[in-house]
Amino acid sequence: MHQDASSDETNNNWFGMSVKEASKEIVYGSIAGMVAEIFEYPFDLAKVRLQAQLLYSTQGRSTPSFNGPLDCLNQTWREEGLRGLYRGVSVPIIGSMVQTAGLFLAYSSFQNIIQNYYHGSVRYEGFKKLQLTIPQLGVAAAGAGFVTSFILCVSFT
């Protein structure tokens, strides 16, 4: 029995998406999560240090070390350099990669599910993918957020 390329495509699919498409979403989501964490991490570090400063001030330490987030970032840069700004970033990067990859994959999957529901299994007209309406995109985004919330709240205990 002969199988053509279209039957291989349907056998290797996940919620209306081929394995190749799903892999692309995972890779792009992982890269986006990594880039986002690299930009966000120093600000999170400043927030944590400012919160810890408040904790120490209630335990007898009278003068605060930092006068705000920018002062915290400047002092960290001067005293510890780039390493100080990114100390401990490896685990948050992995978490952000997993979360954003899940978000990208879920969003694409929900778009495909909605596309197939309204337009059948025909997803392409020529080379152009059919456009979803704004409410349909909103439903896809809400579904992706719902799925991603389970990734964010995973407990390993």
Automatic annotation (TrEMBL):
Entry keyword set: Membrane, Mitochondrion, Repeat, Transmembrane, Transmembrane helix, Transport
Listed InterPro entries: MCP_dom_sf, MCP_transmembrane, Mitochondrial_Carrier
Domain of life: Eukaryota
Keyword Repeat: yes
Solcar repeats: 20-113
GO cellular component assignments: mitochondrial membrane
Presence of keyword Membrane: yes
PANTHER family registered for this protein in UniProt: MITOCHONDRIAL BASIC AMINO ACIDS TRANSPORTER-RELATED (PTHR45624), MITOCHONDRIAL ORNITHINE TRANSPORTER 1 (PTHR45624:SF31)
Protein's recorded name: Uncharacterized protein
